Amino acid sequence: MKLKSFLYCFIVFLSLGYNHASAQTNMENVIQIDGIAMTADSLRAVPYAVVSVKNKNRGIEAAYTGVFSVVCFKGDTLEFSCEGFRSKQYIVPKDIKGQYFSVIQLMVQDTFYLPETIIRPLPSKEGFSYAFLHWRIPNDQYELARRNTDAYFLKALAYTMPIDGQVAQARLMQKQANEAVYYGQQPPMNIFNPLAWGQFFEAWKRGDFRTKSNPYINDGNNY
Q: How far apart are CA 188 and CA 112, in angstroms?
């Protein structure tokens, strides 16, 4: 009975020691890779490059400056990919000492070969005439920008827009300032202003108040 207990305790002790050694070995294999992804020809940063650990379903996205930091195990394979660049792989060496390592990954731009496009003329002269008269070609970005920044359009839009708080406050302050000039007394009226009466008589003599005929209305005298 004592022998069985001793064997049981010995097996438990060995298993605990093995697990501790295995955990310590795994922690020693963990490494943090800090680096930057750059172009191979001009040494410029590759923005938002994806750095993933192969067959581990883990990864990160580099910053706009190409800088990245990823945690993996020694011996893992890092895959670098980005739109417009060829994918690259980097195998983390197993004999690295320590838990930190720096990498500069150079990436080569990829060339896209688009399928050919054949431009054919219209089948006949009549077809061209019909297309020229009836086809509605959408405006490009330049034409849309030109219409949106047209001076007459902006002026008409300004008349329809309500005033903002700053303009309303300025008008209110101006009105209060004008009223404060005649505070405590009756403001003058132009009906008792001799200069206003003089301007009225001059305009009357010139015929400014006569009814002018509308050239766009046929009153029977225009043919």
A: 81
Distance CA 101, CA 98 (A): 8
Tens digit of each residue's pLDDT (9 = 90 or more) over 5-17: 544 554 544 454 4
CA distance 97 to 31: 9
Overall domain count for the chain: 2
Count of Cβ atoms closer than 10 Å to residue 130 Cβ: 12
Contact predicate 70/62, CB 8 Å: no
* Domain of residue 141, residue span: 119-210
pLDDT of residue 9: 54
Locate the DSSP E strands across the chain.
30-39, 50-53, 58-61, 67-73, 77-82, 85-91, 100-107
93 shares its domain with 125: no
Q: The whole model's pTM is what?
A: 0.42
Q: How far apart are CA 58 and CA 79, in angstroms?
A: 11
Q: What does each C-alpha distance from 21 to 24, 71, 93 come to in angstroms?
A: 5, 21, 22
Percent of the chain with pLDDT over 70: 83
Report, in this order, helix, strand and coil percent for the chain, each rounded to 5: 40, 20, 40
Q: Looking at the predicted structure, is the pLDDT value of residue 49 above 90?
A: yes
Asked if the structure places residue 172 within a domain, the reply is yes
